[in-house]
Each structure stands twice: as structure tokens, then as C-alpha cells.
Amino acid sequence: MRKKVILDMDPGIDDAIAILLACRSPELEILGITTVGGNVPLELTTKNALRMLEFVGAENIPVYAGMRGPIFGELRTAEFVHGQDGIGDVNLPEPSKKPAKGHAVDFIRKEVMEKNPSEISIVATGPLSNVAMALLLEPEIARRLSSIVIMGGAYATTPWGYGNESPRAEFNIATDPLAAKIVFNSGAEIYAFGLDVTMRPDAGISKNHYEEIGRAGTKTGDLIHKMLRRFVHLIEPVPMHDPMALAYTIKPEIFKFRRLHVDVEVCGTLTRGETLADLREWLPESFKKPANANICVDLDGKAFIDLLISRVVYGR
Ligand code: BDR
Ligand code: CA
After folding, report:
1. Alpha-carbon distance 135 to 211, whole Å?
2. Residues with Cβ within 6 A of ligand 1?
3. Which CATH number do you get for residue 281?
4. pLDDT value, residue 101
5. Mind listing the pLDDT tens digit for each residue in 107-161?
6. Span from the CA of 136 to the centroid of ligand 2 (angstroms)
7. What confidence tens digit (pLDDT) does each residue in 292-310 have?
8. Exposure check for the chain: N or C terminus, fewer CB within 10 A?
């Protein structure tokens, strides 16, 4: 049986690659994509989700626009990383389809509460504003969902787990820390992929991979090559944050987790958006707060990159 997933995202170059990976993975049934303002404004993240689906001939998957920005505070977008169009200034045509009618948060509520109880996983690769709003609207969603798979956070479990938006905060969580706090405290089964693992050099696209992608001569290979052309000069290997969270739903066996208690700093002046994982093993059991998340601390980086390239570049 295929796994039912809702992709909640802010495409975004790596979100866009995650869409390609999802569409090329027969293990998954994509119920819909919900979009959120994040890397670029909501109009563009929604357009980019539609563009990617059309690019791979999956335009039958509905796209629902959601929250324009964080529950509290202003949205700060990241065009300097993702380009003016949000996907590396690749000049993809305007999508011919429009977003589906209705709000993303309502789509999530209906799918989980009415249509597919206890079977759905949400894969969230943007700020958690839509997911948190759905949980506020209907807290029972937390128990009905099979899991919430999150790309976000930095948990200090490896030398890479320390923040990109600031020394302590990762972009998705820093964009809407309140939403992240609601999600981590919701009681849902959470699997989180933070910078601890997504920044690991062996789990990124190296210069060699990049050249191979360019040489492959496939339609998706050419698109990804174009999308990453600026990135590869900024940071190499190029991290594949969002595809990694998606890959977990396809090949969970390549990832290792620690069950930890996590909470989110919502108002620190220097640490706003920090995901605080309690790593104090010496703490007496009676003082410990129960674990509320499975934090990815290790993976087979090569297996992940091989899976990604073979599916999205070669379609195998
Ligand atoms: C996350 O932030 C965004 O820029 C990426 O799309 C990814 O979801 C990495 O911190
Ligand atoms: Ca993203």
C-alpha cells in the first residue's frame, strides 16, 4: 500500500527538488501540496508548487495556498538564496493550473479528520504556520496523523546542528517559532531532520555530483543543474535539506534517530527560533520531561544522495 502524504512547503529550490522526488516515488500517494510563505512570498511558493507538478506531468495533484506568513510577526523571505522566482531564477513558464479552492489549513483538517484518519503523514519543509494552525483548529489531528515529518531545527547533536538563520536558529523554525512550538508540543509523532544531518557534507550535492547531473542529459537533470548553478558557488556540497525529510518517507531504514524532548525559543533576543533539545543524559529520570520528538542524528549519506539522484535525475 502506498503511504498517504500531504506536502506542506515553501518552494524554494530544495522544496522544489523534494516535489520532484515525491512525484518520482511510487511508494507515495500525494494527497495534495499545501503552501506557506517562507523562502519567497505565498503567491510565489504556490506558483512554484504548481510549476513543479506541471514539469513532471503531475498536475492532477491539488495545491492549496495557506498562511502568508508567521502566526506572529513579519515574514522575512530569502530571495538572496533562492532567487527572485524562489527556484533559482530558472524562467519556468507560468503554471497553466490555478491553486485549488479553499485554504490549506482547511484542506489538512478535512483530509485528516474526515477522509483518511490515522493514515496520513504530513511532510513539512517550510515554516510550520499551516500545520500549527490546523492543530489549533482541531487538536485531535495530532493523534490522527501517522506522523509529522519536519525539515527544521538545529539540535546540537552533531557539529553541524547549530543554525543557519542565526548562530542558533534554523530558517524554517526562525521564520515561525510560535508555530514550531505549537507543533512540538502537540503530542503528534514527530520525526525532525535538522541541520545536524542536512548540513552533513556527505549528504549534499558535491561538485562531482553537480557535474554528473549536468551531463545526464535528462529534462529534470537539466532543471536541477540550472536551479543549483548559483548555490554551488555559495556552499559546496549543496545541502539537500527538504529532499532528506521526504526521503525518510521512502527509505526510513537509512536514518537513525534519538528520542528527545524539544521545545522552541520564541522570544529570545539572540536565540529566537532555537530548537532546544534536552541532551542532559545525567539528569535524574524523575526530572526529565518526556521525549516529544524523534530527532535524526545520523544517516547513510551516500544511500540518500544515490536515491535522490537516481529518482529525480534518471527517473529510476
Ligand atoms: C530550510 O530553509 C529553506 O531555505 C530551505 O528550503 C529549507 O527548508 C533550510 O534551513
Ligand atoms: Ca523549504
Report:
1. 43
2. 12, 14-15, 39, 78, 81, 125, 151, 164, 170-172, 241-242
3. 3.90.245.10
4. 98
5. 999 999 998 777 999 999 999 999 999 999 999 999 999 999 999 999 999 999 9
6. 22
7. 999 999 999 999 999 999 9
8. N
Q: Which residue has the cell 534518471?
A: 314
In the chain, the number of structural domains is 1
Helix axis angle for 219-227 and 207-215, nearest 10°, is 140
* Full domain range(s) for residue 7: 3-313
| pLDDT for 316 | 83
Share above pLDDT 90 across residues of the chain, in percent, rounded to a whole number: 95
For the CA of 151, the nearest atom of ligand 1: 8
C-alpha grid cell, residue 20? 520532484
- Are 260 and 277 spatial neighbours (Cβ–Cβ below 8 Å)? yes
Closest CA to 150 of 126, 174, 130, 171: 126
- Which residues make Cβ contacts (< 8 Å) with residue 59, sequence separation at least 6? 50, 53, 95, 96, 97
Tell me the C-alpha distance between 28 and 120, whole Å.
Answer: 11
